Amino acid sequence: MTEAAIPPKSTRSFSRALVVGNCLAAWCAVFLCIYASEVSAGIVVPAALTLVAWLVGGYMGIGALDFRTATASVQRGGGTDK
Fold first, then answer.
1. Which residues, 6 or more positions from 41, have their beta carbon under 8 angstroms from its beta carbon?
2. CA–CA separation, 16 vs 6, rounded Å?
3. CA spacing 20 to 30 A to 75: which of 3, 33, 48, 58?
């Protein structure tokens, strides 16, 4: 019986750092805007929360596509050899 090949793990550390940094910046903008003034909070809060949702969703979506591509490559026999 053959053992199923496991695709190499992608680190994606640079993109992860960008997503985390931008999400932290967006949350800081939300809190500062709510604390500082209620006038601009009506514009900044929805925009910042939408940015967070797009960043996290995009990061997870691209990661799923990367994993699917790596898995298909290994199943075709194009993966790493032992």
1. 33, 34
2. 22
3. 58
